[in-house]
Design a protein that fits this description.
Layout lengths: L11 E5 L6 H14 L3 E4 L4 H7 L6 E6 L8 H14 L3 E5 L2 H5 L3 H15 L4 E4 L7 H13 L4 E3 L11 H10 L4 E5 L5 H10 L3 E4 L2 H5 L1
Parallel strand pairs: 1-2, 1-8, 2-3, 3-4, 4-5, 5-6, 6-7, 7-8
């Protein structure tokens, strides 16, 4: 059987999550995504229906965020957000892990938090965002194992709102810890070289703020 490599563009996801972005910027981002045929686009909850309408004739997935960007809201709040976003047309959801509970070693609370979102999504892929620059290797490993146990589909390195950026070593660690989970690399990826480095480290998806610089 011949192995056909996945084109780089079909690993790229465009993030439109900056607080200041208004409808005009979201519409422009959707146009860029459609033109490039990237794999997915991240949008704030308020703009899920806008993106759904603009990209309905494409194969681009709409991803929106839960408990974003700090992750410290209650599980009930995250579950409500999940239900609302699913009804609005999101294809996938990315939830921020409860960092405080993780660092408290309250692993059961962290697992129940993720599991509540997974169950509410009813089969839609759930990504757990870890904020790797803020965690020790032990915390990263434990978080990854908890996400896997709670039936998440992906783990993602950062939200882009906390200090620090993704490094290849973190992608390698997450991939090695939980081979059954896919890794989304995000955080300061600005060039094609950056993207290829993360793919080489084991990332399945690459989340960027500018597509053109990564694909040039």
């Amino acid at each position: 059987m011949l192995f056909t490599p996945i084109p780089l563009v079909r690993r790229i996801e465009l993030a439109l999550l900056a607080p200041e972005l208004a409808r005009a910027q979201v519409e422009a981002g959707c146009a860029v995504a459609a033109q490039s045929d990237c794999v997915a686009i991240f949008v704030k909850p308020h703009y899920v229906e806008v993106a759904r309408k603009l990209l309905k004739e494409t194969r681009i997935a709409i991803v929106s965020v839960v408990g974003f960007p700090h992750g410290g809201v209650t599980t009930a709040t995250k579950m409500y957000e999940t239900q609302d976003l699913c009804q609005r047309g999101a294809d996938e959801l990315a939830m921020v892990i409860n960092l405080g509970a993780l660092r408290d070693h309250d692993d059961l609370a962290v697992r129940n938090d993720i599991a509540g979102v997974v169950q509410t999504a009813r089969g839609k892929p759930i990504t757990v965002i870890l904020e790797t620059p803020l965690l020790t290797d032990e915390e990263k490993t434990r978080a990854c194992k908890i996400a896997e146990a709670a039936k998440a589909s992906f783990v993602m390195t950062v939200t882009g709102f906390a200090p620090g950026r993704v490094v290849a070593a973190d992608v390698q660690l997450l991939r090695a810890t939980c081979p059954n989970l896919k890794v989304r690399a995000a955080g300061g990826i600005a060039t094609q070289s950056d993207a290829l480095e993360m793919i080489g480290a084991g990332a399945e998806r690459i989340v960027v703020r500018e597509i053109s610089q990564v694909l040039c």
